[in-house]
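As a warm-up, study this chain.
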Amino acid sequence: MKYRKGRWSKSIKPLMAFADLTILICGVFLFEIQLSNYYSFIVYISIAWIIISLKNGFYEVDRQARVIQLFSLLFRQIVLFVIVLYAYMGFFKQPNVGRLALANYVVYVTVVVFSFKYLVFFLLKKFRVLLKGNGRTVIVIGDNSKTRQLIKIFKSKKEYGFDFKAKFSVKAQDFSIAKCLDYVVENGIDEIYFSVAELSNEEIKQLVDFSDNNLRTLKFIPDNKDIFAKNLKYEYYDYIPILSLRNIAVHEPINAFIKRSFDIVFSSLVILFVLSWLTPLMAILIKLESKGPTLFLQKRHGLDNREFFCFKYRSMAINKSTDDLHVKKNDMRVTKIGKFIRKTSLDEMPQFYNVFSGQMSVVGPRPHMISLSEVYMKKANRYMLRHSVKPGITGLAQVSGFRGEVEEDSDIINRVKYDIFYLENWSLLMDLGIILQTVLNLFKGEEKAY
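Now compare it with the structure written out below.
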């Protein structure tokens, strides 16, 4: 099967945020604001800007957005930022602050941030037109006035970066959803647009299942926007209304920021205060029993199904079947010290390095061996949806009794159900609860920890 391509464009938002913070910080030294502590003020405005941006969706500018939307975003951003800015003067009692200089600072931030935002917005449009970069290949299912208008937009608005490939008419004699999906896979299509009014519930279900299992973006062309649930994202391509699924809680910008911040802090503490002494100790114990490296690196599938090397303490003697054969009960390859560290899950501890580097999260769906992923996706519906988020050291499925060896199809089916529930209902409290339960399970012992 074909997997979703990596998107370099994911780096645009953090780079823009970094540039805006640079503008904010440089401006502090351009005006004689006369603060008592410039460094605490810089930290304050930087944190405030990030929080306001995440809540405001300041960097969530769609490719089909208009300039007026940039003005609207900037207005909300600056109004909230000014309130927080002047709150600093009151909370931290800055009697000598130059109010004219502070007003000039606000004007400077407004003008320079907007100018930079518009410049990036303009250059991205030119980049899509002239160099065909940052694009999306799309197909449309349905043949009515709205689908024809949408196709016209795809073809005429080259600055949006949509590469229209094909239209499938539901009324055609040889039409079938299977034919559409075959085309998507064979041609590496990124996004599927379809008219809700022309498809049956079963056909829509087929499309939703396919998009989940193959990491494709699915968007709806509604016949009446009032009939849809509120958790769908509503967008306009010119004047054509488009709906897209928004069922991944961690994809919300503020949620993503909170989760990544927690991962960095938590993994840093573990690396400094646990792995700093545990790794040398494990190296001695492992090497006393068997020759070979202390760490075991194995390729796993991560976010967007990209491969990465998952770190573990080596628990088996060196063998050729490591990447193909899952560990079973009483597996002869497992060493004596390996049995202990697997039983206590200590073998997973080096994965905090994966978390710190951004390849994994503390909590999330467990990453499987590549050879097993190919098998499991055929057994469990929506299996590939697990790869919409970073894999975790522990997860909801693991603390719910679905860890270790998959002995029956029901094991992987239930594991996937728990994983999908997690990514659709994520909260920081849920993560903390899963971590606490994981620690308790280590002391109680688990039947499948072998």
